[in-house]
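Weekly puzzle thread! Below is a chain. First person to post its structure in token form gets bragging rights.
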Amino acid sequence: MTKSVAVYLAHPRPGSFNHAVADAVAGELGSLGCRVVVHDLYAERFDPLLPADGTGTVDDAAPVADDPLMARHRAEVATLDAMVFVHPNWWGMPPAILTGWVQRVLAPGVAYKLGSADGEPAGLLKAGRALVLNTSDTPAAREEGEFGDPLQRVWAACVLPYVGVGDVRRRVFRTVSDSTGEERAAWLREAREQAAALLDPYA
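Winning reply:
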């Protein structure tokens, strides 16, 4: 059975290393027979602003999206077998456009349901695995020692398990600003390997 995987890219500058990572991942998954959809959120001009009527969580499903792009994203995410997120570390957070994507697309009734405000969510997505590939200019020791690696908490504790994704993998490529061509080539090889491992039932 053909696997469906979406790659979500959040970087505003065409030609960035994040773009190269997303291209490498999509190419690898496609070569392995996947149905791959790539969403460059900036190029799509995805609207990250959550409207007032989209803030309900308990017992309420998100209102029907009147934005065709939003409707497409919501319908598509429910069909995926795996997801890949590619973005830089900005202030210990994903770029605002990706945070808005999470809030607007992974909505109640679409990605999870919650019976009460203090209850455990029931994830609705069938995607069992996700891969998060980050770029950073903060050395690992400082990121973990001073800041506690907030992106790890965001994706592997707060967001993806909430919607039913139990296997969350993450790799950080650092430091990008002073990296060599050889280092970047090695990182792209690793990105392809990580993408291929998403399809391996034993990996």
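Puzzle host: Confirmed. Bonus trivia for everyone else. The beta strands are 4-9, 35-40, 82-88, 112-113, 122-123, 129-136, 167-174.
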